[in-house]
Amino acid sequence: MTLDRAAHAAQSAMYIEALNAMAPSQLVWQLVKNYNCFLHKGLNGSQFSAEPGNLYNLNSYKYSGIANEKIVHVEAAEEGSFAVTRNIPKNSNKPRDSRSKATKKNKNFRRAAIRLGKEVHTVRPDLKKAALARASAVNKSQRTTAAKSS
Hints:
By secondary structure, the chain is an alpha+beta fold.
């Protein structure tokens, strides 16, 4: 039975969450830092990671959505908005209840960014800048540009 890419990623993320509930985050990082399904090796020895919760897509412990107990993930939602997903560590053994997802409308992006910054600051203050950068990139990608007339 073959799984599509999104289903495989979701299944891998649930397995890793269960592993995270059983072992310390440093041990999990030592186990998965060089071998996981989200790893992409770039030019000049650089390593990138496409796991959910990794805001900069860098393969490092600080930004890892696999190894850290507290994660924040920002992604594009329907047109004109972005979704913020964060995990709830106390519910890590209940996959359905372990994530909290909220959608922020981009009608006034500055206001949405301030709310996002406050929300991220309560979970992971060290990732506030990264979350705002990701939300800004999502907002920029959703903007439509006027066609130039010649």
